Amino acid sequence: MAPPGGAGHRLPEDVGKRAPESAVPVLPTCRERKPVGGATSRRGINRKRWPPSLRTMVEAADLLVRTLGECRIDSPLPGLLDRHGTTEHYVDEADRVLFDDTLAMVGERTGKPPSFEPGGPRRQIFFDPAKIRVGIVTCGGLCPGLNDVIRGLVLELTSHYGVSRIVGFRNGYRGLVARHGHDILELTPAGVQHINEHGGTILGTSRGNQDPVEIVDCLDHLGVNILFVIGGDGSMRGAQRIAQEITTRERRIAVVGVPKTIDNDIPWIGHSFGFQTAFGKATESIRAAHIEATAQPGGVGLVRLMGRQSGFIACYAALANNDADYVLIPEVPVDLDGFLPHLRRRVRERGHALVVVAEGAGQEYLAADGADASGNRLLGDFGIYLRGRVLSDFATAGQEINLKYIDPSYVIRSVPANPYDSVYCLRLAQAAVHAAMAGRTEMVVGSWRNRFVHVPIPLAVASRNQVDPGGDLWMSVLEATGQPTSFSIPDRAAA
């Protein structure tokens, strides 16, 4: 069935510019072809890092979610909804989830407080389940839980909504571009029954820009009414370009994202699926490095973990083991002239040390140019660089060292989801289906203050979730490791 025509709506173009409360947000028309994926920013949104002090830049209008039209079809899930109102465990569809959660933050506001639309099933839906076709695509790097999300989407669509036509696009956005020649995969409950037991994605994935015009051509040709995109911030910017092209053509096709980032760097969604599995797996490498370091005189364990611009995996993995003496992350500048003497003194006094470093830390010491296929800046390998500096510094000081370097990056991201993430993946998939069937579009699902919510894609890609050096997580890391807040001149002299 070809999707019917219809007009779309859009969000205000600038964060911080309020719209009248009665206004319905409408997307700007996309007049030029902009490639799907990559690191380009949304026109009108400043993608500079938003520190916590600028949280008030997010206003009520920025959290409005686009809809394709009025919901007029009775939901096939009335039994789940009739007895519900808002409680401490459930938010009714007519209610909202507050963005701010302290008296001080609420007190800073003037005017209507910002709030999210809650996730969950609706009493009325937009699409007729018997007449639609659904597409699913996975994009970007691997992450634990991708197959769980695919399985959750298929089971929710078929078992509860009665949707019978679901296709998977292979190898990321490339699978939606005819000239690449990828076939599509029919997805059925039987076909996805056990895929959650395996890492990776049965659909395959890829990085790189694709033309949204060609992608929407594919959706039109196949009669796809809903597209689920499972991917990171670059993939979500691609989904936004697709939604804008759909609006230009006046089609009624919903584009809903399930955000995937092993680094946990997408904001306003609580945390990403797969993150708990990732840092849990990373603890095994930290434990091994600690055992190696304590087994030999002058033992130093150095573990490099994933985290391009956000050091969450390094922080949580280090806290889970509580064996690390130092944690180096991208958000906190590394002073090697102070760190190296401090490390030598630590080994001299206690016989060993363990250092955990995120891949994006210390880039100020490296000269890396260029970008990958998705437009992400290429990083220098600070783990290897730090290894060389540590060995050289100990040699210069005439101090014994036995250093073991461990990099488990690809092992971490390719494993199946742990039980917690499996549950979270399923619930995110259910929330995504409910949103799409109700005609929501250009949005992602997430969990805010333990409530499932709808987050507009322009807001989700306008900033980056990072470890706050002034926040309680980093404070916990400093308490657990005993490392100083900075490596001062006296530390260098003492070593």
Automatic annotation (TrEMBL):
Residues annotated as binding Mg(2+): D233
Region (Disordered): 1-22
Active site: D263 (proton acceptor)
GO molecular function: 6-phosphofructokinase activity
Any Pfam family: PFK
Keywords, in A-Z order: ATP-binding, Cytoplasm, Glycolysis, Kinase, Magnesium, Metal-binding, Nucleotide-binding, Transferase
Similarity field: Belongs to the phosphofructokinase type A (PFKA) family. PPi-dependent PFK group II subfamily. Atypical ATP-dependent clade 'X' sub-subfamily.
UniProt name for this protein: ATP-dependent 6-phosphofructokinase
Protein's organism: Paractinoplanes hotanensis
Lineage of source species: Bacteria, Bacillati, Actinomycetota, Actinomycetes, Micromonosporales
